[in-house]
Amino acid sequence: MVKRPFPLEKPLLWLLTLLLSSALFVTLYRVDNKYTTTAPQAINGVLYVSENDWTDTPIRYLRDGWRYYPDRLLTPESLPLQGDSYFHLSIGEKTTFALGSPHRSPRGSGSYAMTLHLPETVQTYALELPEVYAAYRFYVNDQLRLTMGQPDPEVYEDQTQCRIITFEASGKVTLLLAATNHSWIYSGLVYPPAFGDPLHVTTLRGLRFGLSLILMTVMGLLAAFSLYLAVRIRRRNHVWLFFMLCLATAMLTSYPVVHGILPLPVQPWYTLELVSGYLVTLLVILLHNRICQTGSRARLVSSWAAGLVCVLALVYGLGASYLSLPLMQGFSGLVQAFKWLTAGYLLFTAALAVGRQTKSASVLFYADSFYASALIWDRLLPHYEPIVGGWFQEWGSLSLVLAIGVVMGYEVMMGYRHSLVYAEEQRQMKRQLAMQVAHLQQVNQKVEESARLRHDFRHHLRTLMTLAREGHSHALESYLQGITEVSEGIHIDRLTENIELDALVQYYRHLAQSAGIQFQSRLSLPAVLTFPIVDLCGLLGNLLENAVEACQRQQTGDKIIFIAGRIRDQQLELVVDNTFEGEIRTFGGKYLSSKRNEVGLGIASVLETVERYAGVINLYTDEKGFHAELSLPLNVESPQ
């Protein structure tokens, strides 16, 4: 097979992957983004919502115009006393209390306030508060509506959860969130709250919850199935790796479900969530290297680098309460560089594997392209927070996991098929052994009869001499005819000089003739063949077995099997023809079994043997029957 050079085996398909992935991410940015939804936002800490606004936009995300009071844990009573000692903040721009300043601590307290001017008609409103780090109180006007953990510094206890509160209100309403964080790398209000009609707010939350639950369930089922395979298929380390990959991906995609149901402390849950993302990357690299057959040095470097990042992420998460802002920014830059290097490494190694025509490498190459596209658009479109779906990098990682799952599933399926073919070959070998034994018994019987004839020959000579001396010509002629019939009865009839093939063909000739099938052979083959005889007998046995079964199912017409073989130009040429009745079923260019709705194991074994020895086979049907013509090179050894 001539190998085509790389850079791109199918450049149009690669470009199409980039275009479609880019279109997907741009679409997600436009339609599934809290920062691109069109709804009036607060200005200078005040949001006006008219009846028309409420009708046209029943849900909005409160991202702009919050009044932020740093280093203060306020209450409705203390809020009016603060005067103008605040500044306006957009949620998501700053993710810690340090507000980007290296001179401030990312830990401490902070309060967020916003004044709503709602329609005068009393209505029911819903407010979804995503995770707020790491303890807080939330007030609506003068009423405490929600408490998570203990935000007071003296009795601080972290706890966070995605929650929805509902309240009835009209006119002027003040929202106040007082948060404290001494536990995690983010601080206070990081994600914009959703505010609007209860039905719309809960529906979007349910969609996000349901999508995450589906992904988590799929990953869990894949993990359970891969665990079953890993236990059944021993010495397959990659199956165990895929099992761990599915578990890590399930953990990575489960956070909307987990944080929507359970109020959890920061440790160890958020650290596990952080590490699971880098663990997915590590396992992807390990499996990617195995599938693409990457060089040992590249495997070692990439695996150790990804493992080191996982360890650093674990230390980073566990030590979050002690980190300074420069350390947080340093780790963020490190992992961003690691992601870019990972994308480049995966693309490069997959490209090399495609160039070598490594099996299934093209699937990984397109998934790697999707992952790289996700990273690119994550940088090009930074102001993105999904409403229902996941982050760009999560979609990219999921594409890698699914691509590896497809490759692994194909390998498992092919392994199962090869095991069936192997079982079929074992069955043929046992049958061939039985044929050899039966053939040897027949030969031994003929040899014993020949020995008895030689032992009795002197008695026959005496009888012949007496008959000739006495002139009994008629009796002499009859006696000679009887001796001739006896000697012909012990003649060993051979269809080919090769003992092993002769035993095989004799068996199927006897089987065919017993079923009323004409068996014709023309085998001009030497006693010694420079081709692995076990594989040759397995191949020919499958073809003859199929031929006999096809003729046995035939209800009308002559039933005929014809086999021929010869040596020409250092090639072993074989032909097996048989009549049949009905239709030959095919699927995808392959012949289906007449016993079950799948490719026949006998034919599959034949094709695998021919491919293993770089032979040529032609299977076709016409009005005369089914024909199998094949050519195998001589002077070959059995592949290891």
UniProtKB/TrEMBL annotation:
Highest taxon of source: Bacteria
Membrane-spanning ranges: 12-31, 173-191, 211-231, 238-257, 269-288, 300-325, 337-354, 361-377, 397-416
InterPro entries recorded: HATPase_C_sf, NatK-like_C
GO molecular function, one term: identical protein binding
Transmembrane helix among keywords: yes
Alphabetically ordered keywords of this record: Membrane, Transmembrane, Transmembrane helix
KW Transmembrane helix (keyword) present: yes
Domain Sensor histidine kinase NatK-like C-terminal, first and last residues per copy: 533-633
PANTHER family (UniProt xref): TWO-COMPONENT SENSOR HISTIDINE KINASE
Descriptive protein name: GHKL domain-containing protein
